[in-house]
From TrEMBL:
<dbReference type="GO" id="GO:0012505">
    <property type="term" value="C:endomembrane system"/>
</dbReference>
<dbReference type="InterPro" id="IPR051689">
    <property type="entry name" value="Sterol_desaturase/TMEM195"/>
</dbReference>
<keyword id="KW-0812">Transmembrane</keyword>
<feature type="transmembrane region" description="Helical">
    <location>
        <begin position="136"/>
        <end position="154"/>
    </location>
</feature>
<protein>
    <submittedName>
        <fullName>Sterol desaturase family protein</fullName>
    </submittedName>
</protein>
<dbReference type="Pfam" id="PF04116">
    <property type="entry name" value="FA_hydroxylase"/>
</dbReference>
<dbReference type="GO" id="GO:0005506">
    <property type="term" value="F:iron ion binding"/>
</dbReference>
<keyword id="KW-0560">Oxidoreductase</keyword>
<feature type="transmembrane region" description="Helical">
    <location>
        <begin position="47"/>
        <end position="68"/>
    </location>
</feature>
<feature type="transmembrane region" description="Helical">
    <location>
        <begin position="6"/>
        <end position="26"/>
    </location>
</feature>
<dbReference type="GO" id="GO:0008610">
    <property type="term" value="P:lipid biosynthetic process"/>
</dbReference>
<dbReference type="GO" id="GO:0016020">
    <property type="term" value="C:membrane"/>
</dbReference>
<dbReference type="GO" id="GO:0006643">
    <property type="term" value="P:membrane lipid metabolic process"/>
</dbReference>
<keyword id="KW-0472">Membrane</keyword>
<dbReference type="GO" id="GO:0050479">
    <property type="term" value="F:glyceryl-ether monooxygenase activity"/>
</dbReference>
<keyword id="KW-0443">Lipid metabolism</keyword>
<keyword id="KW-1133">Transmembrane helix</keyword>
Length: 276
């Protein structure tokens, strides 16, 4: 099964070009805009993620299908209630997935790719991980609830398309009720900030309501500084994709005990033994 988001890629590329041209003709000194090497890196990471992700998607479909067959009930795709349940369940699954990938270092090692750019534009949305294997467990409960696998994959694609449009500085705050309920470019700019106030905030996919509910919400306030707390200073796609895995491995190998090794793997990014 080819993910529906694949069909949106030509539109994504076109919109990246349009946004880049908008900076040429309508520059804004308060916005970072585009830089050629950064954009090429983001596009390369996006292309690589799709090439690697396609065969893994086949594995995902098989696992979801197996879970669906043993579900205690099977929900009907013709019922609007199934789609409504799927919308909220998928968005909650994304929140849990996203939060875990910021708080568990071995998961962060893949997700850090998306935060490695010093800029924030539509091409940043395409800067994706080359290790998609960690996504599967977070949506598996939906199949066990009886949601057909093809519906899960379709809703994932809908969420990804929505989130593409969050990666822009060209859109200011939206109407207040929209900002309260939905994830917006303003909320997502804060999520990509390396400022202390923005770290580990605004994990939502389509809705920002989960962040409000679980107290991980932070509105955009002080000027956002994009990138990592310790930037990697490279445009090499291989280093962007795997630098944190390498750093994690070095820390694990240097650890003095199994407890410390587990801490380096399962603790939050930046974890270190208390003695250090």
């Amino acid at each position: 099964m080819i993910p529906a988001v694949i069909y949106a890629i030509p539109a994504f590329v076109l919109l990246v070009v349009v946004e880049a041209l908008s900076y040429r003709f309508l520059p804004d000194d308060d916005e970072r805009g585009y830089e050629l090497r950064d954009t090429v890196t983001s596009m390369s990471m996006g292309a690589g993620s799709q090439v690697i992700g396609l065969p893994w998607k086949a594995v995902t479909v098989l696992v979801y299908a197996a879970a669906f067959t043993v579900a205690p009930w099977q929900l009907s795709p013709s019922s609007p209630w199934t789609w409504l349940l799927l919308f909220f369940a998928d968005d909650l699954a994304y929140y849990v997935f996203h939060r875990a990938h910021h708080r568990v270092r071995v998961l962060w090692a893949g997700h850090v790719v998306h935060h490695s750019s010093l800029r924030f534009n539509l091409s940043t949305a395409l800067r994706q991980s080359w290790t998609p294997m960690t996504t599967l467990p977070f949506w598996l409960p939906l199949a066990l609830l009886g949601v057909p696998p093809w519906m899960i994959l379709l809703q994932q694609s809908v969420s990804l398309v929505y989130q593409f449009f969050l990666h822009t500085e060209r859109v200011d705050r939206l109407w207040r009720p929209v900002e309260w309920l939905f994830n917006t470019p303003s909320h997502h700019r804060a999520h990509h900030g390396s400022n202390n106030v923005y770290l580990d905030r605004n994990y939502g996919g389509i809705l920002i309501a989960w962040d409000r509910l679980f107290r991980t919400f932070e509105p955009e306030g002080e000027r956002v500084v994009y990138g990592l707390t310790k930037n990697i200073e490279t445009h090499n796609p291989l280093r962007v994709a795997f630098h944190e895995y390498a750093a994690t491995w070095r820390d694990v190998c240097s650890a003095a005990s199994w407890r410390d090794r587990a801490g380096y793997l399962l603790g939050p990014p930046g974890w270190a033994p208390a003695s250090r």
